[in-house]
Amino acid sequence: MSEGTRLGIRTAQVGMLINTVLAAVKILAGVFGRSYALIADGVESTADIFSSLIVWGGLRIASRSADDAYPFGYGKAEALAAAAVALLLLAAAIGIAVESVREIVTPHHTPRPFTLAVLVGVILVKEVLFRRVVQIGTDVGSTAVRADALHHRSDVITSAAAFIGISIALIGGPGWESADDWAALAAATIIVYNGVGILRPAIHDLMDRAPGEEMRGRVAAAARGVPGVCAIEKLKVRKAGLGYYVDLHVQADPTLPLHAAHVLSGMVKSAIRQAVPEVAGVLIHMEPFDQR
User: Fold this and answer.
1) Which of 30, 99, 121, 193 has a CA-to-CA distance to 61 between 20 and 30 Å?
2) Does domain 213-288 have CATH number 3.10.180.10?
3) What angle (nearest 5°) sits at the alpha carbon of residue 195, between those of residues 191 and 23?
């Protein structure tokens, strides 16, 4: 298991612990504070617990070495985990929206003021957690960890929306009791947007979409820099798990003996992996160089 995978798993574990505490606090505060927006926020945090668990499992599976059953490795499990997190987020948003509408049409009491203090604490904790997790996800190149980070940011959004809604209900007085329910409905819309944003890159990884030109350029430069390489073509790069896999045609002197061509291909592989540490595997096809 790579250090990046270990770091991603530890991040998911910390997120699970924090979300468990926050979910309990928000649901209890929502019940006793008469705020459905806060209850909905707690439900979203409960979904966060499962999302972190999915990320944890996805990273553990993705770290397995290739075997006879999966000769190309288990890296796709990381992207599957990210997609599952996105779908879980979308499902939570739909549930919140349905319950918000039900609460809007049902008369109820004004939320209690103490719920605002609870929300301020939640917003601060989750924003710090979001910034930490998204940085780790970017550093290790994990779509699943970045998806988990966006799940934390969605929690910040729902908490902020609940804060605004409860504040309006308290300031407006009688007749404004449903303001926090409208806030929960607005938050659900934002969560749907974030869920789609998480799902898109996960689908890209599952469909082997090529990475940006910056990654391809680094690989190409490393290959061309090896003595004996006359030209390269048909460069393909795809992402699986936390690593990238490269397929490349290398053109060399047509008179080069087979053993020397084999050695040259090994040099190209080493150069690419040294220049681009994110690359986990390289497949080289040697071809004779044609100057025409």
Assistant:
1) 193
2) no
3) 55
